Predict the 3D structure of the following.
Amino acid sequence: MAEFGAKDVAALRKATGAGMMDAKRALEASDGDAEKAKDWLREKGLAGAGKRAGRAADQGAIDVVVEGGTGALVELNCETDFVAKGSDFKAAVTSLARHVVANGDENLVEQSYDGSTVAESLVLLSAKLGEKIELGRVVRYESPDGLLDGYKHIQNDRGTIGVLVELGGVALGGEGAANEKSQAVAHDIALHIASAAPRYVTRDDIPADVVAKEREVLEALTRNENKPEAALPKIVEGRLNGFYKDVALAEQGFVREPKTTVKQLLADLGPDATVRRFARVKIGEE
């Protein structure tokens, strides 16, 4: 059993820039011999990874994968767009998205992946590319009786916005395959979500406290404009309807045909057609 203490781990971390757990593992594998531990870290591609811990990982890439009734959206963050648009980084994002489709997203960083775990694979990628790399947001939808679609907006050679959307109450083809018209509308809505950035599906989904706060702001704004007191309720309601159109997907004008709302697009698929849920992730945005 290797004998070493916290000071030995700290010294190895300082000398190599490795993370605490990696330094500890290296000493365990090397029977406490610091020089052998350094070589072990280098061989594993872990030396120097810890030095990047304090850097900001606010760049990155997104990929979206939909296979049958399951879809996944994965964000991977790094420090520069140069790394984000590189082939190794983009391949890693795509591989992770496919992994999430196949294996789920529960305890993702601990899942077996590429011969180790997701967490360890990201450390190795960080060491290889020379930047801090972090797993960002991950979304996974399963829809056994609905229709999933995804959209990825590409900018500067990498995905910067990803969308997953699930429709319900739409016509499907044989063996669960999407009806061609339903699929086309689902994709149009996914594209629209990427562009218009709605926050809710319908106005009924907006929390009451959010509506109350918006109403309060609009009332103050209207009063500050010296509008007639008797006209305030009507003006505020009109402005509140404008707020609904800004944040509620169903009420937004479709990005390709602004005079047609998303709700009207859905109506073409039948009276029961609805957007059940959606997710939108953009690099650099919360």
Notes: Residues 195 and 211 are 23 Å apart (CA to CA). The chain has a mean pLDDT of 89. The longest strand covers residues 158-168.
